[in-house]
Specification:
The protein is an alpha+beta fold. Helices cover 61% and strands 18% of the residues. A 4-stranded antiparallel sheet has the order 1-2-3-8.
């Protein structure tokens, strides 16, 4: 009984700990990369690329096929052993093995293997880009949760101040130092703040649910994230010029690598298409044998009368008969030879070379070559466009990061100013030199300044991380 209670307590503690788990950003990113459906589909694309390569390598191996047949014939048919027409019932069997090997096919097999390797590399680049995009989505969703939580804490902390002011104002009103209207004003402010707190709590829940859905986590109620320890971490990326980041992005970003791989694939497809102009040389080898259980006839010399004399013609001038001596044979029926003996006696082989030269095929090869040339030009244009898009995106990200930093600095200065104004208004209100309405307005401006600073801070963090991704820092190694 005691052991059962201990086990139950341990189980309860483990469940409680699991429910209280708070996910870090890195854990969220890794979980998304392991469970995202699009990532899983891209991994299947990689497996398809491996199969394509296996098939391409298999083209260098000889083709080997074997076949066997067994039949029973009744009535008039040709004996496969004697090749004589017979009216009987017999069993026959045959077997053959054929081997073929392509000696030359215009280098298409070699280039198909090279294309399969390029295709796998392109699939890997697409997977890496998808991982970067998903990591960015997760980071954005995660920072949105942190922002909403920070705003909620601002509202709660300021409402706690409001509660203190309500208690102080009630005492001053009862003492006759302040009019009752000041108390009503602060109570109205308290009601508005509580409504804002409820809205902020809803925003936190909605952002948590959105992040959980992105991570494919269904336990929305117990899902939560770690909301401490996240600050602005700049390893010097913000001080770099846009051109420096662009040059690094062209070397590391998957968008460019994907476009370059597509150009290489188009070039390889063109080489494969041109290979169809060349002849194909193949070698072949075949082995076959057969068996039949039918009886056959043989001719043997009569031992009692080994020769016989027969007239074979006449002399035209004299009419004298021309005779000849021939072996005197007797026809005898014999049974079928043993199975393995027949296989040995009746076997045969064939081998040789086959040359196929394309001469006229309705311009099919020429059309295919021209089509692949167009695809190559299109791929080059897409590569050029990808480079232009990357430059534009990096410039935009660079400008956004600079602007976000300036907004963050301005928000800090605004908060400092509002802090001084709020402290001054609070001192004046405490001594009765200002009314509750003016104090509430100052407090509201102070609250808004805190919220705007939070928004500017996390907006700058996100845009700074986007810039770091363009610089080639892996998503899993971003620092917060």
């Amino acid at each position: 009984m005691k052991k059962s209670i201990i086990i139950a307590l341990l189980l309860f503690v483990s469940i409680a700990q699991a429910q209280q788990k708070k996910w870090t950003l890195k854990e969220c990113v890794l979980h998304a990369l392991e469970n995202n459906i699009s990532v899983k589909q891209s991994l299947l694309d990689l497996k398809d690329a491996d199969i394509d390569k296996l098939t391409a390598v298999g083209n260098f191996l000889p083709s080997i096929s074997a076949s066997a047949g067994l039949s029973e014939n009744t009535g008039l048919s040709f004996n496969p052993i004697t090749n004589n027409a017979e009216t009987t019932t017999f069993l026959s069997a045959s077997g053959n093995i054929n081997v073929g090997y392509t000696l030359f096919d215009g280098l298409r097999n070699i280039r198909t293997v090279q294309r399969a390797e390029l295709s796998k590399l392109a699939s890997q680049y697409r997977l890496e880009k998808m991982k970067d995009d998903i990591s960015l989505f997760v980071a954005n969703g995660y920072l949105q949760v942190i922002l909403n939580k920070a705003n909620l804490e601002v509202l709660k902390s300021q409402n706690a101040v409001t509660q203190e002011q309500i208690e102080r104002t009630e005492q001053l009103v009862e003492a006759g130092s302040l009019p009752r209207g000041d108390l009503l004003e602060i109570q109205a402010t308290d009601a508005n703040e509580k409504q804002s707190i409820v809205n902020a709590e809803n925003q936190v829940k909605i952002s948590l649910i959105s992040l959980a859905q992105l991570l494919l986590i269904k336990d929305y109620e117990n899902f939560d994230v770690e909301d401490e320890g996240y600050d602005i971490v700049d390893d010097g990326i913000s001080s770099m010029s846009a051109d420096e980041i662009i040059n690094e992005a062209k070397e590391t970003r998957s968008e460019i690598k994907i476009a370059e791989s597509n150009v290489a694939l188009a070039e390889k497809d063109l080489q494969i298409a041109k290979g169809s102009y060349l002849p194909t040389l193949s070698a072949f080898f075949g082995y076959n044998t057969r068996y039949s259980n039918t009886k056959s006839f043989i001719q043997e010399v009569d031992p009692d009368n080994p020769t016989v004399v027969q007239q074979i013609g006449t002399v035209q001038s004299t009419g004298e008969a021309v005779i000849g001596e021939f072996p005197n044979t007797l026809t005898q029926e014999v049974g079928a030879a043993p199975f393995f003996d027949q296989l040995y006696l009746n076997d045969g082989i064939s081998y040789g070379l086959s040359l196929s030269i394309p001469i006229l095929n309705g311009f099919a090869i020429k059309g295919n070559v021209q089509r692949n040339k167009i695809n190559l030009e299109r791929s080059k244009y897409l590569l050029e466009q990808a480079e232009l898009d990357l430059e534009s995106s990096v410039y935009q990200a660079h400008v956004d990061a600079k602007g976000a930093f300036k907004s963050y600095e301005a928000a800090k200065l605004a908060l400092e100013s509002q802090q001084l104004a709020y402290d001054y208004a609070k001192e004046r209100y405490d001594v009765g030199l200002t009314n509750a309405f003016d104090f509430s307005q100052s407090k509201q401006r102070f609250d808004n300044a805190k919220i705007q600073l939070n928004q500017a801070k996390y907006d700058y963090i996100f845009k700074l991380k986007v810039l770091e991704l363009y610089f080639g820092i892996p998503a899993t190694e971003l620092k917060f």
